[in-house]
Structures are given as structure tokens and as C-alpha cells.
Amino acid sequence: xxxxxxxxxxxxxxxxxxxxxxxxxxxxxxxxxxxxxxxxxxxxxxxxxxxxxxxxxxxxxxxxxxxxxxxxxxxxxxxxxxxxxxxxxxxxxxxxxxxxxxxxxxxxxxxxxxxxxxxxxxxxxxxxxxxxxxxxxxxxxxxxxxxxxxxxxxxxxxxxxxxxxxxxxxxxxxxxxxxxxxxxxxxxxxxxxxxxxxxxxxxxxxxxxxxxxxxxxxxxxxxxxxxxxxxxxxxxxxxxxxxxxxxxx
Length: 249
Prior knowledge:
Blueprint: H1 2-16, E1 24-27, E2 30-33, E3 36-39, E4 42-43, E5 53-56, E6 59-61, E7 66-68, E8 71-72, E9 81-85, E10 88-91, E11 94-97, E12 100-101, E13 111-114, E14 117-119, E15 124-126, E16 129-130, E17 146-153, E18 157-161, E19 166-173, E20 179-186, E21 195-196, E22 201-203, E23 208-210, E24 213-214, E25 224-225, E26 231-232
Antiparallel strand pairs: 1-2, 2-3, 3-4, 5-6, 6-7, 7-8, 9-10, 10-11, 11-12, 13-14, 14-15, 15-16, 17-18, 18-19, 19-20, 21-22, 22-23, 23-24, 25-26
């Protein structure tokens, strides 16, 4: 009994001298300590520690404001705030990705696909940017578009489908600083039987496809993807494809 009393007294003493304070880590450099909200080592002035919550990458909300990377986002009416998904939110009939508005997004049909992709009836978005344009190919029906299971690979190779087609989408670097999404319709594939094998290969119930094109001459029944990502069947391996097999290059 005496030992238990001593433990309680020791806990109270430590609490009074400050050792009882516990820093609450919210994530992405945000934390709460001694009644203050911090971004890194800086106090986030005016932020309410009782209502602060992380709602996306470096995106914090309390009962008054929304912050991105420690900076208050301007012109936000918090009573009209609505979280749509991680990183995506709505305020006063405007859609945001992190701290930036998505210009011309259709409010009524907007839907989050995952933390970095969304869609409406007109476009599919990566962050706040439309990935489909007349230069890079089109998704026929963005409103019904969805990514295939395991269809987002390092945000470089993407596979998805709408009610009409299956698509192979590649995010290609066009210079040292910028990349661009190129969209290819996978011709003739059974969209109800499609399966992503890895970043290069997909299949349906009849054919194997390499980067969205039928892989000619492959033995379907013995084809497999190796641990290193290459393909093989009973006749050959597919680590080096011939020019005829590289349809787009």
C-alpha cells in the first residue's frame, strides 16, 4: 500500500515540475505542446490545439482556419468547410487540393479517387491538374473512370478504365523539371477481366499486354512475371523486346 502511495506522489511531483507534459505529434511537422500548436519549431499563432487535426499532407485544420505547411490559407470560411478525402476539400463551392484551388472543377460530380487523384464529369485530376488533354490522349468518360486494383505504380505507370475502355497512362518526364501524362487506349481488351501484373504487363482472359499493346507470340498459359519484373513463357523471356514488340517506341 505504501509503495502505491509513493508511486502516486512521485507521479504528481514529476507532473508539477514539467516531466508530465507529453508532446502530441500530429504528423508532417505539426505537433501540440503545452497548449500550443507547432509547425516544426515555430508556434502556429492562433491555432486551436483542442480542434487541430491533420487532414492531408502538411494540411491542418482547426475550428477557425486551414493551414498548409504552417501557413494560413486565405479566404477560407471554416463553417463551409467540407473534407472530401485526404488532401482534397471543399469551401464555398470551390474544390481545393492541399492549398490550391482546382479551377473549373465540377462541384456536383467531383469525386476523390485517392489522396492524389480525383475526377469529375469532365476530367481526371492528378493533384489539381487535369491529366487528360487533346495533346496527350483522352479518357472517354471521366465520370465513370476508376483505377484498376494495383493500377497506380509509383505515380508513373497508371492503369484504369471507364465504362468504354481500359487505359494505360504514363507520366513521362519532358524535361528536367516537368512531366506530362500520356494516355493510351488499350485496344480490344476485355475490361471486365483485366488484371494488372506489374508496371509493364497486364492481361485479360485471352491476351498478355505490354504497356497497353498486345504482346504478340506469347504463350498465354505459361506466361508469368518474374520477381525482377520481367516476363517469361515456355518459349522465351521478355527482358528485351524486339522493335516490333515495342509498338509505341
